[in-house]
Amino acid sequence: MSNYEFGGRADIEKALDMLVNLDNVQNNAIVVLEIDEEIARLQTELDKIVADPSYVPDNDSLEVLSGYVERADDWNNNK
Fold this sequence. Notes:
mainly alpha, globular
């Protein structure tokens, strides 16, 4: 998503939803731990944006988030 524009809380919630769904179907313990770490990281970002709606994550976080949003869109389109 090279043209990604941060959609605020909705993007973080979309990414979290996708990761939780992925976590629920995953059987590999190491992968589950990695997903859980990402869920915790995104939850922290969500907490920040809830506290301050003008908050924007740093560029590294936005890059990762854009990938999750893209995967979430793909996930939802394939249902």
